[in-house]
Amino acid sequence: MKEFTIAKNDAGQRLDRWLAKTLPLLPAPLAQKYIRLKRVKVNGKGSKRDVRLQVGDVLQLYINDEFFDRPTPENAFLSLYQPKLNILYEDEHILLLDKRPGLVVHPDETERVNTLLTHIQAYLYQKKEWSPYKENSFAPALCNRIDRNTGGIVIAAKTAEALRVMNQKIKDRELSKFYLCAVLGRMDPREGKLEGFIWKDEVKKQVYVRSRPQPGAKTAITLYKTLAVQNGLSLVECDLITGRTHQIRAQFAAAGHPLLGDGKYGSERENRKYGRHGQALYSYRLEFRFTTDAGPLEHLNSRSFQVEDVDFLKEYFPDFHLSQAQPER
Asked: Is the peptide bond before 189 cis (omega within 30 degrees of 0)?
């Protein structure tokens, strides 16, 4: 419990507005709940949210200590009252989430609060499964990442052991990730392999595909299969053999078939024609194919998970149903 005495500069304010100013990390809906539960007392008694505070009023706040901290990137999750997560699977070790396009996965210079990781932290904190205020507490972490404007499955580790095992499995390529994308034109052949070398320009945050090795360039291999062709677009399934930055977007653009809606590697004229903003790319299916012991994650071996819907299918491929997509085995 913390106690405050109202001074002249704070007098005249509504109780709920004083709380919002004094405890900026406390979400407004939670503040209202605490007032209703009488965990916020004015002069020793419960009060209403719209009561006007007077000089000398004594406020007693029965609220967790962490809400009295100053806002920082590390405690941004506290300000989220209803985390927005589409959970495909959860156990005591991991979460599999369907990230929607437009959501950034990690806090960055443009967004601190509304990120996938922050929503995960808020979710686990509110479930009392994680708290950064415990000594030596492990922080939930993402095992893979997806571009802001790409949707699809993201793996989050809830324990340090799960993070270690999953990161090793990804490194050893014991997971298969399948993507769906809409590309301009028809792929010829309809099924095949895109292979080359990707070099990243760190300044421009853009990658370039080369046909031959060069210093700093990394091998990039994508297997693809055309699933449908409609209205000048091809729906293509991709199996990433390597996982380079912007690999699918850059390789299909280099092959003459840029992704619909891709503002960096695609065609602005075609994007306007189809009315698409943001690349039509979705990591829609994940398969666990462990060949070595996975410890606490062994129960996931041979299992697969698929999202329920892909945002661009209904608009551009209305006759195609997600159940028709069958990844190579």
From this structure: yes
| Spans of the chain, pLDDT less than 70 | 135, 326-329
276-286 per-position pLDDT tens digit:
999 999 999 99
Domain boundaries, the chain: 2-68, 73-171, 175-324
Determine contact, residues 87/97, Cβ cutoff 8 Å.
yes
- CATH fold match for the domains 2-68 and 73-171: no
| H helices present in the chain, as ranges | 15-22, 28-36, 116-126, 160-171, 247-254, 268-274, 313-316
**Residue 44 has what pLDDT?**
95
What is the model's pLDDT at position 108?
77
Closest CA to 175 of 285, 325, 90, 299: 285
The dotted CATH code for 175-324 is 3.30.2350.10
- CATH class for domain 73-171? alpha beta
Q: How far are the Cα atoms of 161, 248, 269, 293 from residue 165, in angstroms, in the given order?
A: 6, 26, 45, 9
What is the spatial distance between Cα 167 and Cα 143, in angstroms, rounded to a whole number? 6
| DSSP state letter for 258 | P
CATH 3.40.50.150 fits 2-68, yes or no: no
Summarize pLDDT for 108-129 with one digit per residue, the tens. Answer: 777 778 999 999 999 999 999 9
* pLDDT of the residue at 306: 96
169 CB contacts (<8 Å, ≥6 apart)? 175, 288, 290, 294, 297
